[in-house]
Amino acid sequence: MRQRYLRRGTQGLGIFLGLLGITGIGMTHVIFPGLHCYACPLSATVCPIGLLQNLVIAGTAPFYLLGVLAVYGIFLGRGWCGWFCPFGTVNDLFSWRKVRFHKAFSPLKFLVLLGTVFAAWRLADTWFCKLCPAASLTASLPYFAMGLAQPTRPFFIHMGTLAATLIGMTLVARFWCRYLCPMGAILALFNRVSLFGLGFNQKKCTSCGLCLRACPMGIDPRSEVNSTNCIKCGECSSACPQGALSLGFSLPGARGYAPLRFPWPRSRANRVPSGK
């Protein structure tokens, strides 16, 4: 329970930093470690996906962006999604139906990321920003309320993508984070080597299934320890009565971390046990 309150506090901090412009601070060069539109009237940070598109359009090597994202990824991996990202928090507010994760749709977020980069390169435009539901919520709606945006076609497109995403969230917990978020795709690349992650002790596991039912991403935490689909929110460890799952900082590759999956056979000692 204490861990859950701590997560709510860090999620609140993410929202506060996303709206830091309310303090009078103007736009900075700080890259936000989550999905938050820099067109938000109160934003003081840069959206990594928006910046990536603009750098691709300008033909500029994104060394600064990639370096910052690597630091974020190595530190928390997708833990940013579960503990900090404001749009991830919106997903949590609609996480009523914790259905199982469909692995067939897992590559979608990587395809969205590749499509975003390709569209910026080929069409020389920030097409993801024109469709992003986070931008709809934090930029389009506020500007419309302030009388600075008109109900034109781009506005209605934003409202359509936001409505579709919110419906998806009500039907599938963490819908956006599971299948579509390009920022989640970037952080997922670091999930197995990040310092922050989930540990699993098979000896304590009784296969009760409570961790699976608690997971908002709909994965089995025992067999997908720190997989690319795990947001490291800690809901599974809070639900485990035996303490078989634990969340914290550790060196990459420590016991309990899911190894990279290779196509060739591996010894049983290198596998994360399923607990069954």
How would you portray this structure in words?
- This protein is mostly helical and 276 residues long.
- It has 2 domains: 2-188, no CATH class; 198-276, Alpha-Beta Plaits (2-Layer Sandwich).
- Helices cover 47% and strands 4% of the residues.
- The two termini are 27 Å apart.
Q: Strand portion, in percent? A: under 5%
Q: How large, in whole angstroms, is the Cα Rg? A: 19 Å
Q: What separation lies between the terminal Cα atoms? A: 27 Å
Mean pLDDT: 90
Number of strands: 2
Q: Give the count of structural domains.
A: 2
| Unreliable runs | 257-276
Q: Bin the helical content.
A: 40-55%
| Structural class by secondary-structure content | mainly alpha
The major β-sheet equals: 2 strands, antiparallel
Distinctive features:
276 residues; Alpha-Beta Plaits; two-stranded antiparallel ribbon
List the helices and strands and how they pair.
Blueprint: H1 2-18, H2 48-58, H3 63-76, H4 79-83, H5 86-93, H6 108-123, H7 127-131, H8 133-145, H9 153-171, H10 175-179, H11 182-188, E1 196-200, H12 210-214, H13 235-239, E2 245-249
Antiparallel strand pairs: 1-2
Helix pairs in contact: 2-6, 6-11, 8-9
Report a brief summary of the structure.
The chain has helices at residues 2-18, 48-58, 63-76, 79-83, 86-93, 108-123, 127-131, 133-145, 153-171, 175-179, 182-188, 210-214, 235-239, and strands spanning 196-200, 245-249. It has 276 residues and is mainly alpha-helical.
